[in-house]
Amino acid sequence: MKTGESTDIGNKSSGRKRKSPLNYDLMVSVVQNFFDNASNRLGEIAQRIGHGQDMSAARKMIYTSEKLRATGLIARNAEDIDVFFSLPDIDRMEWVMMLLNGDI
Question: Contact 95/84 with Cβ under 8 angstroms?
Fold first, then answer.
């Protein structure tokens, strides 16, 4: 080794700026926020699926005589026919149940 040479050949970072350390708190916060949002969305999806299953069970509960009675009640009044067909599918079952119960 010659005079004046550095013995630290592997240290190439001298004179360069060091990278700032990662902000783990920020990363944890971002990931936590992502999972919270995903959890909320999955909860909404599960609720909608559950509502669909509840409606399916309600449809099975209406017996043939109730179907015929509801059909007769709806067919007697042109306005009821218009209302029934203007409703989204998901609301029709509830409307028919209300009609059969005399709530409408």
Answer: yes
Amino acid (1-letter code) at residue 15: G
Distance CA 47, CA 32 (A): 22
Whole-angstrom Cα distance, residue 48 to residue 42? Answer: 10
Token output for 9: 């050949």
CA distances (Å), origin 75, targets 65, 71, 84, 94: 15, 6, 10, 17
pLDDT tens by residue, the chain, 104 residues: 555 555 555 555 555 666 656 777 887 888 888 878 878 887 887 777 777 777 777 766 667 778 888 889 999 988 989 999 999 988 998 999 899 898 88
Tokens of 6: 């550095």
